[in-house]
Amino acid sequence: MLATRLRTAPLMSFDLNGPSWFPFTEPAIRIEDDLDEDRYTVRAELPGIDPAKDVDITYADGVLRLTVTRAEAQRDKGHSEFRYGTFHRTVPLPPGAKDDTLSAVYKDGILEVTVAVGEPHPTGRHIPVTVETVKPVRKTG
To answer: Do 43 and 29 touch, CB atoms closer than 8 A?
Structure first.
């Protein structure tokens, strides 16, 4: 009996569905995006957070990065539970996105990031190849 309890008791005290056991099941930041003629919009579902302190939005090299830190604590009589974590989501902006027009608004649990989109600028260039001829070496003899 004691041996059975020792083998099963440790498993009974853990929530096997929790994110600490299966990191690939952690909640992701759910998003939707929409590209209109001149505006790109990303909406992220982030209920129950304080956007002023829990959300960080960065932009670099054509990629928007959302970082959200969530910390929840629940206390009942004789029981307390907390959940926390940091979640990331990267979103490539479309060609022609004007990064100086990026803006973000949080309302009713939805974070909306918008950016104006114009004509894409060419990102590459043509490099001509110069062909050199090799002069034959004369043998003296």
So the answer is: no
